[in-house]
């Protein structure tokens, strides 16, 4: 573990030294290749490709199939030279230079007439279409009538007959048609480069010349609504991040460059001008502060790579200009890689400022950029931007013990993408960085134990030019052994730039516990207040709900999946909400244990966090204290104390939502007696509440002040019959109602393989506790424990107690008795300067645990406090801090964040700050 930590520190140090020397501006490479091709390969790559074809069966097969299908079109163009290019979607007759849209829909084209046909614009931003594109052979050549319509297939009629239809009815099919034709031309350009057969060059050049000249004379679309869409449009697509034709025309031009320069010399400036117009628009439009920026940068970078040097162009805008724009320059909607990194990455934690799903995409994009710089420019981007290696190293922090990532925000939980680890290894190998290579090799082998066995002949290789130039087989140092997952995660990890906090007591898939707690800071976030996910017995039992069936465009996303009622949180007066997507509503971390630290630290038997959140819609103050208490090598439980009240009073109600996986649930009094639950129409939009309430159904309610217990059961009949149960105990309060309900399916997990039942077909089991009036002096006090049929609940009973100080109205006291003889008295105060007393125990802290002695073991914990008094033991500190005192097999150990005085059996011991459990000299 220490070697891994040392490696992480060293690789960050090595990269940081370089970053400091270079400053924030990344210098361009001194030498850049002057010949073509230079994007997918180099001129020397031709011989390498031929050797690959001779050596590898898959390569020969791909080449032959590529050649065979392309020759279909060279044969057609032998008879009709314009057969393929005439099927491009162009303004063949009107030569329109201007395109007009209304929001996300094409309206019409016009403007001055260009000297040649121009590229037709696509129909809509979305993909929905009443009319689809014909097969290529059925496309009407030079299709462009006086009304600007296209001839496409009516999807609603039998046989899908061709009809003249307005482009707005065709979705994105116009783009699709052009990309297919450009793809054929790109294949032909590659085959010309490989074989020198001119038939391929003629086919490719005709299409390329027609299309790129049409781009050169076409202008950026104008939004007649003068809306946000104007800042997003590309030259061919409604979003600059979907200018996918560029990914085709760049290698097409690169492979065909020498032929074009010889046969179309007068057009070379037009081609370059078209590329630059395209790139300039991507620089001008888009979104700078999230993953869009990197998608845009990829297009700009590729244009830069394929252009000649600045000095070759009258405007001075060539290769260096666009590459430098990607690295160091910014417009209002296109930030440099350095500025985006400064904005999005937390320099302390390495976490990117979006939800885990999108963060993984961004980190992967950055890692791919590093790979591109290594391959194309022989330049170490990771050394220039040291935060990249730190960000990649931080990604395991997202993992639950089953190795699935957390699900908050717009995330579909899945296994962690390991491509960015591979990129860091390749970067290290390319630049001689042994420490970095060893660190990420151990991490890769940890998360993908089969990586060393993934060798041999490639199968089912796609028939594509790119297949010849994709990554060479990864060569891993066999001397580097797989790391342990525990060395890459922290017992408690806090990322303020996404308002996310994790507590863990280990990483055992079956027996460890983990809390993921989040608010709404950063991009792709939901309106969820202080929301939690709980793990147990191999699954995220209390999950985030997901995104919705139709992602962000659906009503279910707007009304339910992105809103409070779908999350494990507390909603105030039925109205709690705020803007989703880019949100700026974080919680404040008031106190925690252990401190958020680098990975690889020792797991502790107690963890906790206390956070504060201002719910803006209702102007409510909320705190949530959550803790993991480990009671044995395979047992433990969660503690949840949620306080909520409106700033100005007048509280109507506070609704505590909890959703759990499973097919059945029960809700009874804690003693097992029936609550007489009755059907109800409460929890509804009626009453001026959130629409999200209306998504709950099969609702039953009981008005009761009794302590209650709920169970949520996953039927594991298809996985060995060891049913999984989440047990929930909650303290009763006056003026409280408790509900059972069904919610929409847990969409976030609906794509996850290996789930114990069909998530899409099973509504989500939901528990709601409604506190009428405020919920500060009557907080929601809960204990959660995962168990199974074969590993039954280790808790014998849960009860509650009040402090003897009657002024402590918001105090929460819990007594948890375990079947192994352990009894925990848990103290939760809203003010750490106050003192709470109960049966001789005394606590002055945010949080404390006092256990009895059982089998020579005992646990005492003081959280953000100064005093703990328990039978035969006292702890005192001069300043608020965390002290964990444990007796194991008769010996006492201490972990303390501040100097403290401990008295055990009247023996006083002075202890300093300790970073790990340390034996007390008693």
Textual characterization of the structure:
By secondary structure, this protein is α+β, with helices and mostly antiparallel strands. Helices cover 25% and strands 28% of the residues. Strands 30, 31, 32, 33, 34, 35, 36, 37, 38, 39, 40 and 41 form a 12-stranded antiparallel sheet that branches. An 8-stranded antiparallel sheet has the order 17-18-19-20-29-26-25-22, with no helix packed on it. Helix 4 packs antiparallel against helix 5, helix 5 crosses helix 7 and helix 8 packs parallel to helix 11. 52% of the residues are buried.
Layout of secondary structure:
Layout: H1 2-22, H2 45-55, H3 57-79, E1 90-91, E2 96-102, E3 105-113, E4 118-119, E5 131-132, E6 150-154, E7 162-165, H4 173-195, H5 198-216, E8 222-223, H6 245-263, H7 268-284, H8 291-306, H9 319-327, H10 337-344, H11 356-377, H12 381-384, H13 387-394, H14 419-431, H15 434-447, E9 492-495, E10 500-504, E11 514-518, E12 520-525, E13 531-536, E14 539-542, H16 555-561, E15 570-572, E16 581-585, E17 588-593, E18 606-615, E19 620-630, E20 636-646, E21 653-660, E22 664-669, E23 678-679, E24 697-703, E25 708-714, E26 724-730, E27 736-743, E28 764-772, E29 775-788, E30 795-801, E31 812-818, E32 823-828, E33 836-838, E34 841-844, E35 847-851, E36 858-870, E37 873-888, E38 891-896, E39 900-904, E40 907-911, E41 918-919
Protein name: Six-hairpin glycosidase
GO cellular component, one term: cell envelope
Region (Disordered): 25-45
């Amino acid at each position: 573990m220490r070697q891994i930590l040392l490696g992480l520190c060293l690789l960050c140090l090595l990269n940081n030294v370089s970053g400091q020397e270079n400053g924030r501006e990344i210098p361009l490479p001194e030498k850049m290749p002057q010949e073509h091709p230079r994007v997918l390969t180099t001129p020397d790559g031709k011989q390498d490709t031929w050797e690959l074809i001779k050596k590898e069966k898959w390569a020969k097969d791909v080449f032959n199939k590529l050649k065979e299908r392309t020759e279909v079109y060279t044969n057609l163009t032998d008879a009709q030279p314009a057969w393929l290019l005439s099927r491009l979607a162009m303004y063949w007759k009107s030569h329109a230079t201007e395109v007009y849209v209304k929001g996300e829909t094409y309206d019409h084209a016009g403007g001055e007439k260009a000297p040649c046909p121009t590229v037709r614009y696509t129909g809509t931003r979305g993909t929905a279409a009443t009319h689809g594109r014909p097969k290529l052979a059925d496309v009407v050549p030079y299709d462009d009538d006086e009304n600007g319509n296209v001839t496409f297939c009516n999807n609603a009629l039998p046989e899908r007959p061709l009809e003249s239809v307005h482009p707005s009815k065709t979705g994105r099919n116009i783009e699709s048609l052009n990309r297919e034709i450009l793809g054929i031309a790109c294949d032909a350009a590659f085959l010309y480069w490989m074989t020198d057969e001119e038939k391929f060059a003629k086919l490719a050049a005709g299409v390329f010349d027609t299309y790129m000249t049409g781009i050169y004379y076409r202008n950026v679309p104008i939004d007649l609504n003068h809306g946000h869409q104007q800042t997003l449009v590309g030259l061919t697509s409604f979003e600059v991040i979907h200018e996918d034709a560029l990914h085709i025309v760049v290698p097409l031009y690169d492979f065909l460059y020498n032929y074009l320069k010889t046969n179309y010399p007068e057009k070379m400036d037009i081609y370059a001008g078209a590329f630059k117009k395209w790139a300039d628009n991507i620089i001008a439009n888009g979104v700078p502060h999230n993953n869009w920026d990197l998608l845009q940068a990829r297009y700009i970078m590729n244009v830069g790579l394929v252009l000649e040097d600045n000095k070759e162009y009258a405007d001075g805008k060539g290769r260096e200009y666009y590459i430098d724009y990607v690295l160091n320059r910014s417009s209002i909607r296109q930030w440099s890689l350095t500025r985006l990194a400064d904005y999005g990455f937390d320099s302390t934690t390495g976490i990117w400022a979006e939800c885990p799903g999108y963060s993984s995409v961004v980190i992967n994009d950055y890692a791919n950029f590093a790979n591109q710089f290594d391959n194309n420019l022989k330049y170490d981007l990771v050394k220039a931007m040291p935060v990249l290696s730190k960000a990649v190293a931080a990604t395991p922090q997202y993992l639950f013990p089953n190795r699935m990532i957390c699900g908050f925000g717009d995330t579909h939980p899945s296994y962690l993408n390991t491509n960015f680890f591979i990129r860091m290894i390749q970067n290290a190998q390319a630049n001689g960085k042994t420490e970095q290579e060893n660190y990420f090799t151990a991490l890769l082998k940890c998360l993908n134990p089969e990586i060393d066995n993934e060798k041999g002949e490639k199968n089912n290789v796609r028939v594509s030019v790119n297949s010849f130039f994709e990554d060479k087989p990864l060569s891993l140092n066999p001397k580097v052994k797989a790391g342990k997952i525990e060395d890459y995660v922290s017992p408690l990890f806090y990322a303020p730039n996404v308002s996310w906090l994790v507590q863990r007591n280990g990483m055992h898939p079956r027996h460890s516990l983990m809390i993921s707690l989040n608010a709404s800071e950063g991009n792709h976030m939901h309106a969820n207040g202080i929301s939690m996910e709980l793990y147990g017995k191999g699954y995220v039992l209390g999950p985030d709900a997901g995104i919705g069936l139709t992602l962000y465009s659906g009503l279910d996303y707007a009304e339910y999946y992105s809103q409070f009622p779908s999350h494990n949180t507390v909603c105030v007066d039925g109205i709690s909400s705020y803007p989703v997507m880019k949100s700026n509503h974080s919680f404040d971390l008031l106190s925690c244990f252990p401190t958020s630290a680098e990975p690889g630290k020792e797991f502790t038997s107690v963890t906790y966090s206390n956070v504060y959140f201002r719910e803006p819609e209702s102007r409510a103050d909320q705190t949530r204290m959550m803790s993991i208490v480990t009671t044995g090598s395979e047992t433990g439980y969660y503690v949840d104390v949620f306080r909520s009240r409106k700033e100005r009073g007048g509280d109507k109600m506070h609704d505590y939502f909890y959703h759990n996986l499973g097919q059945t649930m029960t809700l009874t009094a804690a003693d097992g007696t029936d609550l007489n639950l009755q059907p109800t129409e409460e929890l509804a939009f009626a009453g001026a509440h959130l629409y999200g309430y209306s998504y709950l159904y099969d609702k039953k309610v009981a008005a009761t002040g009794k302590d209650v217990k709920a169970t949520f059961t996953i039927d594991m009949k298809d996985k060995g019959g060891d049913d999984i149960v989440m047990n929930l105990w909650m303290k009763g309060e006056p003026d409280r109602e408790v509900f059972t309900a069904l919610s929409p399916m847990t969409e976030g997990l609906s794509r996850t393989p290996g789930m114990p039942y069909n998530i899409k077909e099973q509504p989500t089991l939901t528990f709601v506790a409604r506190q009428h009036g405020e919920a500060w002096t009557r907080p929601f006090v809960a204990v959660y424990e995962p168990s199974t049929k074969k590993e039954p609940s280790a808790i014998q009973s849960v009860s509650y107690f009040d402090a003897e100080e009657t002024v402590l109205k918001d105090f929460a006291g819990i007594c948890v008795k375990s079947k192994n003889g352990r009894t925990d008295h848990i103290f939760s105060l809203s003010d750490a300067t106050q003192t709470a007393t109960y049966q001789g125990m005394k606590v002055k802290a945010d949080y404390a645990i006092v256990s009895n002695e059982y089998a020579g073991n005992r646990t005492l914990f003081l959280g953000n406090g100064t005093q703990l008094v328990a039978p035969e033991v006292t702890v005192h500190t001069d300043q608020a801090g965390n002290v964990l005192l444990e007796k194991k097999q008769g010996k006492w150990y201490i972990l303390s964040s501040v100097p403290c005085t401990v008295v055990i059996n009247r023996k006083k011991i002075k202890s300093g700050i300790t970073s790990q459990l340390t034996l007390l000299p008693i």
